Hints:
By secondary structure, this protein is mainly beta. It has nine domains: 22-128, no CATH class; 132-155 and 169-227 and 260-277 and 297-390, no CATH class; 409-486, no CATH class; 491-566, no CATH class; 568-664, Immunoglobulin-like (Sandwich); 667-764, Sandwich (Immunoglobulin-like), CATH 2.60.40.10; 768-865, Sandwich (Immunoglobulin-like), CATH 2.60.40; 867-963, Immunoglobulins (Immunoglobulin-like, Sandwich), CATH 2.60.40; and more. It is 8% helix and 44% strand. The protein starts with 9 loop residues before the first strand and ends with a strand.
Amino acid sequence: xxxxxxxxxxxxxxxxxxxxxxxxxxxxxxxxxxxxxxxxxxxxxxxxxxxxxxxxxxxxxxxxxxxxxxxxxxxxxxxxxxxxxxxxxxxxxxxxxxxxxxxxxxxxxxxxxxxxxxxxxxxxxxxxxxxxxxxxxxxxxxxxxxxxxxxxxxxxxxxxxxxxxxxxxxxxxxxxxxxxxxxxxxxxxxxxxxxxxxxxxxxxxxxxxxxxxxxxxxxxxxxxxxxxxxxxxxxxxxxxxxxxxxxxxxxxxxxxxxxxxxxxxxxxxxxxxxxxxxxxxxxxxxxxxxxxxxxxxxxxxxxxxxxxxxxxxxxxxxxxxxxxxxxxxxxxxxxxxxxxxxxxxxxxxxxxxxxxxxxxxxxxxxxxxxxxxxxxxxxxxxxxxxxxxxxxxxxxxxxxxxxxxxxxxxxxxxxxxxxxxxxxxxxxxxxxxxxxxxxxxxxxxxxxxxxxxxxxxxxxxxxxxxxxxxxxxxxxxxxxxxxxxxxxxxxxxxxxxxxxxxxxxxxxxxxxxxxxxxxxxxxxxxxxxxxxxxxxxxxxxxxxxxxxxxxxxxxxxxxxxxxxxxxxxxxxxxxxxxxxxxxxxxxxxxxxxxxxxxxxxxxxxxxxxxxxxxxxxxxxxxxxxxxxxxxxxxxxxxxxxxxxxxxxxxxxxxxxxxxxxxxxxxxxxxxxxxxxxxxxxxxxxxxxxxxxxxxxxxxxxxxxxxxxxxxxxxxxxxxxxxxxxxxxxxxxxxxxxxxxxxxxxxxxxxxxxxxxxxxxxxxxxxxxxxxxxxxxxxxxxxxxxxxxxxxxxxxxxxxxxxxxxxxxxxxxxxxxxxxxxxxxxxxxxxxxxxxxxxxxxxxxxxxxxxxxxxxxxxxxxxxxxxxxxxxxxxxxxxxxxxxxxxxxxxxxxxxxxxxxxxxxxxxxxxxxxxxxxxxxxxxxxxxxxxxxxxxxxxxxxxxxxxxxxxxxxxxxxxxxxxxxxxxxxxxxxxxxxxxxxxxxxxxxxxxxxxxxxxxxxxxxxxxxxxxxxxxxxxxxxxxxxxxxxxxxxxxxxxxxxxxxxxxxxxxxxxxxxxxxxxxx
Length: 1064
């Protein structure tokens, strides 16, 4: 007898298959009950997903869900990549009523989703991973206030052995889960989410578990996740905020999961699958409202369980993996290790990362002390690219578990404010997070980042020793700072542009190539040669995207390559297939960028005569350069013989090519007159004339030429269908009727022996539009003027239309070089104009016969500027409390000389600094200088920008004034060992309010100690990459001491002094 527990649980459901990747199946309820409520033989569950995919997974865990539900977890022994989750709500009910079933199965990288369907069935689908993402958190973690920017807080004692985190899952009325609705469908999916999250905790060595309570909340809007999260948490104390908070308190839930079935596709057909309100660094008991303890997600039949564990991980303090999130952005550097992990072989990714390409996630958070299938699940703190979320989650889960419920603290707690100096230098690891009850004793350890070493502790500003571990008694609130200094290891970033001859370069911010470990670096591609574009960035041989900029966190040596692609393409601009003998034909191509669609000038085109009868040649050289409009053309001279002609056009060093395929005809009908007519209402057409030629010579009289018309309802007609050629081989015909309706009449002329008919086009125009390329131009004196008119007939470019120009120079010296021009095949007419010789305002107007008069489109105002402004003093000031700002002065130049009596306007954007302007306008003196004084007291750190401009200045001048709260100055090394003659490379960095700053004078003092080292300058300013101290090489053995100082910098001798030891 076959055991019920070994029977497949899914039944075939007739013809309900929708395709090969989806099927709808019934449920074998008895087999399901036997497997999920085992009575001795239910050790496995047989999942017959598809005919080619039947899995028998051994049961690893069965847990109850509510009063009548169960969630199951199983795996294939010996193969951790094959596992499954299944929940059934209503399975405990008696009778044959079908339960609501949901699940998720992974089989060596393949995903299968199981979701509720109608009539008690399930929908099973092979999942093609969509472009789902979660993006940045909705809000930034601001910390508890200015006095404690980076607190670690959670109770040090009385923590339970297992942190139990209660999560309230709220859903709106009408939500659809797969093909089902109602609470049971949502509960089934959330049961799978609970199982997967708890399994991730287990595999990561995190002593915690989640419990999920599902509730319907009719007030919730049914919108996509980001909009849902914004609606709930965007306005504290709103009606929706209060409704969700009340439901949370009633459920005694620490975290709220907001569920939706709505998505919003982006332009890449991806969507936001979930979004967390915050990434707390770290979670704190004094910041546990909805802005710190909620996330929204799409719930359905796909990877809802993974999305749940991922977004919940953000609320525990977790970030994405380093491939997805290569830089930390505004997040705290000391928590940079709390992130997802992808091993070097890209065989998997942990839950806080994203599945990409062929690697898929494992049910674990990154954990340096755990492994998966024999491979480490993370990288320890202190090593490059550290990833060890589990080490942090083992603490933060205990904080989050105490957000609500009976475990929430009632006593007064003391905060221990932790900080790192420099901010990127390392990590402080507390034994438990705070705040702490009075009398608690806390152990803390300092772990340096690669390239740094621990220096000392400062407790409440006082030296507390240099041991890497410290014990703090919480007799009061304390502030603890770990100070690190540079070691002897900097990280070098090598860059390369491939191909190297592309003409651009990679710009690094801050400038490199060497960086302190932990530095964030932005690489940007400078403008490239026309027709080249970025294909992809490669970091150490791995593709990392194709955005215009790429960000890196420097924790080791890297090589960054910008791989370029040729985006040029060719298009034939001449559409001709029939040629006449002893004639000539211009062949034209245009070169353009196929991505931007811009025409490319100065590109060499190679024309090649591939096949031709005798006497046919290409005139001139085969290499032709494209003109300013991207066009290149060559003349084909045909000989006396008929036959096939093939001409190729190609771009050198490229596979791009086009080919002209033509034939030299024995008899050719050439249009002599009457083609390309543009007729307006009531106008009579011109005669149509052709010439019949035999091998390039007139055929003589008596050749019958047949004319035929395709009227297009224009009102035009033919008086007769035939005409005889005269002695010159010409035949003519005049159309009858008048142009009445807009459209195109096509007349063909053919003769016996001619391979192809000649075709006349007569366009009856309903509306002609004339417009300029710009209606306003700002020019410098002497600058070339580039203006074009465009003629458009009935929304099509109009060729061979005369456009007339009229100019009012207004004293600018602008002159027209011609009073009219004729439109080309693209309807364009350049306006020929000489450069301006003086400032002022000119006005150009254009007109054309029959064009609709639209002054706004047919007039251009040309403003000519003759002045140039330069900052004389006051630019890039750094102000501290009590500092008086220096005056801001500009100099006005006109025609290369200082200009007196010019009104200069000043404007300020103060950014809450408290600064203002004494006046808004000043007049330049005999030196051409004008100035303004800043007033007001500095209230907040930030940057104020002052703009100076004049009516005739081509562009304004901007002054940057930064209000600084704290300045730090440090050397890259505190000890340097070198040999006689070695270059001495020591760099100083100025850091204002945590950011690297340039243009600050740094002063140097040297005690040479008989080494022969000398300062080449006593002070120097640098950019944000630092100031290189100008030292000569040593000439003798000994020991020298270098000290740096800068105005307003905090005095820190250990960071501002370097001992230089010179060895033989």
